[in-house]
Task: structure prediction
Amino acid sequence: MARFIIKRVFYMILVLWIVTTITFFLVHSIPGDPVSAMVQDLPEETRELYLEQYGFDQPKIVQYIRFMKQLLQGDLGSSLRYPGRKVAEIASSFAPVSAQIGGIALAIGFTVGTILGIIAALNRNRFSDRVIMILALLGTTIPTFVTASLLQYVFTVVCPIFPTTGWGGAEHMVLPVACMCVGPLATYARYMRSSVLDTTSQDYVLTAEAKGARTPRIVMFHIFRNSFLPCLTVLCTSVASIFSGSFIVEKIFAIPGLGTYFISAINDRDYSMILGLNIIFTGIYILSVLVTDILLGVLDPRIRLAEKN
Amino acid sequence: MENTKSYVPCQEDFVIIGCDDAATEQMPPVSLTYWQHSFRRFKSNKVALVSAVVLLLIVVMTIVGPLMSPYDMEVVDLSQRNLWPSATYWFGTDQLGRDLFSRVWEGGRVSIIIGLLGSLIVALVGCIYGGVSAYFGGRVDNLMMRVVEILSSVPHLLVVIMMSIVLDSSSVGTLLFAMCITGWCPVARLVRSQMLQISRSEYVMAAKVMGVKPLTSIMTHFIPNTLSIIIVNITFRIPGFIFGEAFLSYVGLGVQPPATSWGALCSAASLNFLFYPYQLIIPAGLIALTMLCFTLIGDGLRDALDPKLRR
Result:
């Protein structure tokens, strides 16, 4: 098990390094220098001064080595647009906001989605199954910005119970979390349903039934445990969907999270900011893949055995 | 117990329902091919059929819709700003007084083209990559799959955002390129595993033993057995591309004015959504409807083409 984890961690670092390198050279291959992209007519001397200050006048490879050195020291660079604004600082002060919303949304989506999926599968082709599946289908097909806008409209115009913009108390979290958990919830409901249906037709379930085990026992010990694993593999996908959700939801509900900063960095074409945040997002994603892998390895002995061979 | 004893079974209890003897004697007039069977199964699926019709309607409207409206999508009329839907402006007008009816259908053209072309490109690249990887096997396969693994450990959306920033042009071609550059990875994996599964199956081995040429085997065993999976996969990928385009446009990286798409329309409408909700609801509803149709058709196709997966 320890070897398995070490191997995975090593692999993760390798991937992160490759991704960082590729993004660095991609960002730096954008034609024109960042200074003249920001300010149109700058005196030649001032421009050169700026370039020198940020080190843009040096060869790409020197810049890359310097960037990697800083990165290893935990310095992700600083904003080009707003001098003094460090990527690492912004990340540490605004990531908790995003993490709160995203984490709660994922937790709700995962629990409720799994439960709904089990209910749907156990009542296959009955009314409750149909209703859950139709709702799940709608949940996966309606884009986040539509749900967010609709919720905002309903809670501003029709019944103003929850605040629709801003950040602060717990009441500010209700609507964004509601928006962001729709996607994962629907995905898990669909996955869990098909997974449970797969498991129900297995021989060991039939054996348990033949032995006279009660239905709740079969569901808990035979079906749920085994159909839960395929669902775990989708966990990384839903972490990715939390990102895309957070970009839009944070923008719509005016929440000061990482997504908001990422979007504004895109609109400002603030390349160093984009680069830094990109590395953070990729890091989180790869970390979630790692956690999923390890969890699967712990929970499912079959995977551990396959890895050994 | 007493009940069962007193009951005497009669002749009617042993009639096979839904099948009479005369029917079993008859041979079916023609034997259907796999595709004919699949088409039949698809036709009997009402949900899929209805969504196919709805989708066809949407596609036809994106072609003829802009011609039906007397107003051009690009003509600005500042005296007719933000009008609600009416007899003259069927879907109302936007904040610059442009007719939304022609804009919505014109935008739909872009969205649907991106959806269709994107998933086709991804399927093509994925098939070639996965096929080559499975064909050569061994070290080549290992290397190629490592590349896929690394490419797919980056969140897809971030790649798309990065690519569209770096390329810095917002034509449909750029958007497609940005979305396809890592989008083919899942298809390559799917094709590879399917190919490996087929090559291990008994009938392929039997054909090999009997001296069937590799090319014949590829044509008659590998391609037909992979095709159905790919077709289903293409259908399921289209909503993703439509959503990707809408997301990019919403963030401000997508199609730029005067051209438009459903995502761009939603993005423009969301600014004063509280006052003119119709400007958002129409394109957003169409995005959701189109994605729903493709998903339902995909479900129907999966059931029709691969009965093993049916639930």
Notes: Chain A touches chain B through 42 residues (CB under 8 Å).
